[in-house]
Amino acid sequence: MTNRQMASDETRAGAGREAREAAAERASIAVRPEFRPGGSGRRERVFQLKGVEVLYSGVSAVKDISMDIHRNDVTALIGPSGCGKSTLLRCFNRMNDLIPGAEVRGDLLYHGEDLYGPAVDPVQVRKLIGMVFQKPNPFPKSIYDNVAFGPRILGRKENLDQTVEGALKGAALWDEVKDRLDSNAYGLSGGQQQRLCIARCIAVQPDTILMDEPCSALDPISTGKIEDLMIELKEEFSIVIVTHNMQQAARVSDRTAFLMVELDADEQNRWGRLVEYDETERIFTNPRDKRTEDYVSGKVG
Amino acid sequence: MDASGSGAEGPGGQTASRLQAPGRRLGEKTIEVMLALCGVLSVLTTTAIVISLVGPTIGFFQLVPIGDFLFGTEWTPQFEPPSFGVLEIVVGTLNVTLWAMVFAIPIGLGAAIYLSEYAAPRVRKTVKPILEILAGIPTVAIGIFAVSFLLPEVIQRFWPGDFLGGAVGKPFMALAAGLGVGLMIVPIIASISEDAMSAVPRGLREGAYAMGATRMEVATRVVFPAALSGIVASVVLAISRAVGETMIVVLAAGSNPNLTFNPVESIQAMTAYIATTATGDISTGSVDYKSVFAVGTVLFVMTLAMNMLSIRLVRRYREVYE
Amino acid sequence: MTGAGEVQSERTRLAVAGARATVAVALRNQPRRDVILHALFAGLLLLAILLALAGLAALLIQALVRGAPALGPDLFTNVPSTINPEQAGFRPAIIGSLELIAGVILFVVPIGVGAAIYLEEYADKTRWWNRVIEVNIQNLAAVPSIIYGILGLAFIVRGPLDLGFILAAGSLTLALLVLPVVIIAGREAIRAVPDSIRQGSLALGATRWQTIRHQVLPAAIPGVATGVILAVSRALGEAAPLLLVGAVVFITFDPTPFSADGYSALPVQIFQYATRPQEAFQELAFAGVIVMLVVLLAMNSFAIWLRNRYERRW
């Protein structure tokens, strides 16, 4: 366990009754019954990938990705710039559909169902798999309306106040904004805006949250708060995070996937490939592949 | 249309339905079709313009040989026998346009260079809105101004004696309309040229300044050439507006077709002919009625060619820097 | 990006040209008299601006001076008269203009905003027909206004729609004239909304229309409103197309949109007064110009205020 994790645990243990109550409250509002962690919770696979390849206008960006994402894990995707981590992440909630010329090949199963099947509606997919972006992107509306937007368009308008409050508490933002829910979201600091985006995301009650370098635009203190948040959130959601910060992956994730850029023979084309995917502790202390070891020890950037 | 519902809620619900759309999302499709129709309306408008011109024009050329129309120099539809040489009113339009450009190009470009290279930000903030006000003045007001002020108080007062026939005693003249049209198009030239000059990267200017160039040299030798395609676009667009202008020429230029570029003579412009004839007493189907459409076709083709050229030039200069 | 190579070399070409020019400038002698030349140049530029401003000022002052005698409440309540200019006014023309503008807004807002939304949010920009629509709109924005009059005469007053010389026909004609303005302004406003907002909305499971309706459009409203006001200003001042679709009738009653008895509009009435030699009619014409300019100034100031108050700096 890293120092970070131990410190968080202490804080949680130290908070005692308060923390248990808060956790119970969160659990009661956020999660759909079939998604609660149960006996088989940690072993169940949320995503199963086999030979997944993503192409933009016929040019491969990532190739041959095969891995399983487990429920209630924080799974980190790490690797040098341009290795296709974000591209891969966007496959999970079909955001690549929005890019003209993007094509996804291979098998990508979500709870056993083909995510790219012919009858699948991307809009439905995104209601179940949420996303937080690198640069916080709150809507130009009030804090309340930001969080309420998702439930409103889903037609879940009853008890909206409670849903909003629960989501903000789940994102550890409630105490800071409870007196100014009607103020514009742009008045918040960067870290608060990102937590607002997380609240907005969990208000829709997804079962998975994707995070694309959620802390790279934030200062260290906000980064720390959000990392703590991730560890709490994984109790209810499955989290997949892309990060270029290895230490962050080591701090928060249960499993880590390391991707690397590969060049073809005449160095014209480049694409990302999955090098190694294992429990985080293994990746960072005793990786199987030399390339992984070089990367995590900082020998290559 | 909101698509509510999220599929199976209960535990062990059919997974298959969870990822499918609740409906066929007909609402979305309908909306997209309706919006596309709005976009298509613009194409319909152009088609309608072309159709409304083409029919009667063809009818016109069945009565008047196209050679007489395009190359004849007498435009006298009301005579017996009538003569339909469109050149006379085309030249009338060009006469006004010529003097308008003589006035508007130096002033418009001068203003653009000043605002872009010389003016302090505060001056820019006050002058630019004023130019916008000028752009918004209705042409009927400019036309009245041209015939009741520019003609008597400016032209007739300062025109040298009998030069080119003299300006005194003439209630209408091409130059009066020309100055009015010129005033109207100064904002077009000024704002598009200034836009093009602002788009020139600062690095080009700063490099020149760093080597000791003066403001005048930077403006004329560096910025102006770099922004040239945008400047030309603004001039072409201004010419197109000048050619298509109606109220100012009706009020100030006269109604006698006159094949001349002499500024102090009265002429008739194409647009003026269309306006006065279509509002006069003519019967539908007569050759006079059809002549309106024939002239309209000439006008449309001229301005279309200029507009397309201008659009292409603007796209060129925008693409280079964006 | 297609043509990236061309853009690159164009940029390079300009940079090289600029560098050459500056080197040439820097390496030659700088005699004294150049100082005078430079001052003269700056002076000429200033003169250019002053001439433009002087023209505008002269126009405004003349209108005020010559129109002031005719200003008064009678201007708005009296009907036109050919015999008695002292008793004449603009009442039918003003009401006609108001009704024309109302019709223009009713037509232009849904269709213009709809087209803008389609072109920015739905249309695949690589498809040829969408590019045709784009070029089309830019062309229509520059077609002479009298051609729209011909269109109105041939298609709306007569032809397929066959509405006759009624006010609604004039309204429709003006609406077609200013529609491109609204579409272009609407597109810019929608384009200015950052993509991150759309991505955030879609990632929450909103459909494309939900994203447009709840996020993009509300953010684009200030820009769209400015465009509509610009279009209305333009329509208010146009006389040429209306001359061809029936606004020439000398009427003394208040016009209505569908009455076959005819209608009038402010710029047309001003034009008619201006063509009469009597001084009293000239005064009326100038007074009409003052009224029109005041209204336009008020509208444009409102548009500027709207833009400053609500425009978001992303």
List keywords for this structure.
heterotrimer; B: 322 residues; 13 helices; flat; C: 314 residues; mainly alpha; MetI-like fold; 0% strand
| Text of the CATH class of chain A | Alpha Beta
- What's the β-strand tally of chain A? 10
* Shape summary of chain A: globular
Distance between the termini of chain B: 37 Å
* CATH C-level class of the domain at 94-270 in chain B: Mainly Alpha
Look at the structure and name the CATH superfamily of chain A. P-loop containing nucleotide triphosphate hydrolases
Q: Can you characterise this structure?
A:
The complex is a heterotrimer of chains A (301), B (322) and C (314). Chain A contains twelve helices and ten strands. Chain A is α/β, with parallel strands linked by helices. Chain A has a single domain (46-296), classed as Rossmann fold. The model of chain A is unreliable at 1-8, 10-17 and 27-42 (pLDDT under 50). Chain B has 322 residues and is an all-alpha fold. In chain B, 51% of the residues are buried. Chain B contains 13 helices and two strands. In chain B, a hairpin with a 6-residue loop joins strand 1 and strand 2 (83-84). Chain B has a domain at 94-270: MetI-like fold (Orthogonal Bundle). In chain B, helix 4 packs across helix 7 (174-198), helix 10 runs antiparallel to helix 13 (287-321) and helix 12 (270-278) crosses helix 13. Helix content of chain B is 71%, strand content 1%. Chain C is an all-alpha fold and 314 residues long. Chain C is 74% helix and 0% strand. Chain C is globular, with a radius of gyration of 25 Å. Chains B and C meet through helix 2, helix 4, helix 5, helix 6 and helix 7 of B and helix 1, helix 2, helix 4, helix 5 and helix 6 of C.
